[in-house]
Write a structure and sequence with these properties.
This protein is mainly β. It has strands at 23-29, 32-37, 42-46, 52-57, 69-70, 73-74.
Length: 75
């Protein structure tokens, strides 16, 4: 069987930021990295230095999961 990742670029993962309860659903949008932190009920983005900024705070919800970029913004 042929290795499906044989042509993949060699990259080393690196930590961008820490301190989240359950970071998920990463998206690259308008030159910034977005993700949701499920149990703090937030959608965040990281700037070029890795500093987080809360973009959406849904504290009234049980959890937040997922981000989706759709025409005109996020859905």
């Amino acid at each position: 069987m042929t290795d499906p990742f044989a042509d993949a670029v060699d990259v080393e993962p690196r930590e961008l930021s820490r301190g989240y309860t359950w970071a998920e659903c990463p998206r690259w949008h308008d030159g910034t990295f977005w993700f949701s932190d499920m149990y703090t009920h937030r959608i965040l983005r990281l700037d070029a230095e890795g500093t987080p900024e809360t973009m959406v705070d849904l504290s009234t919800r049980t959890s937040v999961n997922g981000t989706e970029v759709i025409p005109g913004g996020f859905g």
